[in-house]
Amino acid sequence: MATPLKIDFVSDVSCPWCAIGLKSLDKALAAIGDEAAVDIHFQPFELNAAMPPEGQDIGEHLSEKYGSTAEQQQQAREMIRARGAAVGFDFAMDKRGRIYNTFDAHRLLHWAGLEGQQKALKEALFKAYFTQGLDPSAHEVLIYVAGEVGLDKERARQVLHSGEYAAEVRQAEEFFHRHGINSVPAVIINERHLVSGGQPAEVFEQVLREIMAKSA
Q1: Phi, psi dihedrals of residue 187, rounded to the nearest 5°
Q2: How far is CA 58 from CA 55, 77, 98, 185, 186, in A?
Q3: Domain DSBA-like thioredoxin: where (predicted)?
Q4: In this model, does residue 105 exceed pLDDT 90?
Q5: Tens digits of residue pLDDT in 53-101
Q6: Rg for the chain (alpha carbons), in Å?
Q7: pLDDT digits (tens, 9 = 90+) for 12-29
Q8: pLDDT level of residue 216 (50, 70, 90 thresholds)
Q9: Global pTM value
């Protein structure tokens, strides 16, 4: 009988390591196959909750937040690009010049979860921002991406314009902050086991198999 695995994937759509981590987790779950019955939920985390609507230049933002030099930022970008390529994700670094507020994207993801399309929307939002260089705070971009994964565009527009699910997103963010999640990706398995960071698929698979063995 398949072992139940509840996975809470805490992340932000503007986090490159979250895109890498999700691809790695997918590979691990593919290797495990039907040995596990997986129930995955994408939980909200804002790396830059105070980011203004117009966003900020990435280089400027990283210098202010981490004190990194242009050379260090270039090295980090190349590492991320290479790690992404290794798991099949395309980071088009030349198309992504700004970082944006992602609260509305998280509201839309909450709604997509109710519609059974959360993972598809999450993956599409990663692609929109990191591969296509689109603005994930722009409502028209979010509505377009929702439509691309088969969600109702008019309902998506209604959600975004109405402020629906804001309270639910804030509550979830506060819950995970309260429980010590201060960086992402944070992958929580069966509400007890934490894997932090964009780990390789082999690490995810090893941890999942150990949890499955203890559950048997």
Answers
A1: -110, 115
A2: 9, 11, 5, 20, 23
A3: 7-208
A4: yes
A5: 899 999 999 999 999 999 999 999 999 999 999 999 999 988 999 999 9
A6: 17
A7: 999 999 999 999 999 999
A8: confident
A9: 0.96
| CATH 3.40.30.10 at 3-56+100-215, yes or no | yes
User: Residue 204: which of 1, 5, 4, 3 has the closest Cα?
Assistant: 5
3-class SS at 19?
helix
CA distance linking residue 195 with residue 193, whole number of Å = 7
CB neighbours (10 Å) of residue 27? 17
Q: Distance between CA atoms of 111 and 164, rounded to whole angstroms?
A: 9
Domain assignments of the chain as residue spans, ordered by start: 3-56+100-215
Half-sphere exposure of 57 (CA within 13 A, CB side): 6
Structure tokens given for 13? 């759509």
- The CA distances from residue 140 to 73, 104, 125, 191, in Å, are 30, 11, 13, 35
Residue with tokens 């990435």: 58
Q: What does the alpha-carbon distance between residue 129 and residue 124 come to, in Å, rounded to a whole number?
A: 9
User: What phi, psi does 43 have (nearest 5°)?
Assistant: -105, 145
- How far is it, in rounded angstroms, from Cα 37 to Cα 34? 7
